Amino acid sequence: MKLQEYFAPQPTAAADLPNPTLLLRSLTQGVLEVFAGVRELDQLARWFSEEAYRKLGARSNLSARARSARGVAPGRPVFEILSIKETYPADGVVEAVVIVAGPGRTRAVAIRLEGLDRRWRATSFAVL
Question: Angle, to 10 degrees, between the axis of helix 21-36 and the axis of helix 50-70?
Fold first, then answer.
């Protein structure tokens, strides 16, 4: 094993990780609150890979600019999680779709969690 590989995030088997459903629910709520401007993205940093975190930061900035251009103040989003569908394509990997209903619109949130360093981390997150 190379020295860089030793210090890189280490994969963790699903048997050594908690049930991911609660995290999927919490991440969905947290990210929607970030996009609405009522939560700081930094509060979610520990649950995202570096690349996923950067992408969320870019999307968060776009949301803030759009609110500013429309003159809309940040406000707590009102939504209900209707369902969570999880699949397990490999050991220590969860791919999920969270269906979220808000006023006038229902959306799907796609999330990929990977077991790294004995905890789940989101490596991909997309609001569709």
Answer: 40
- Residue type present at position 110: A
pTM of the model: 0.90
Which residue bears the tokens 């919490």? 26
pLDDT, tens digit, for every residue of 51-99?
Answer: 999 999 999 999 999 999 999 899 999 999 999 999 999 999 999 999 9
CA proximity to 50, closest of 88, 93, 9, 10: 9
Determine contact, residues 53/28, Cβ cutoff 8 Å: no
- Convert the pLDDT of each residue in 48-59 to its tens digit: 999 999 999 999
Residue 76: strand, helix, or coil: coil
Distance CA 46, CA 118 (A): 13
**How many Å apart are CA 62 and CA 104, to the nearest integer?**
21
Burial class (CB in 10 A: 0-12, 13-18, 19+), 57: middle
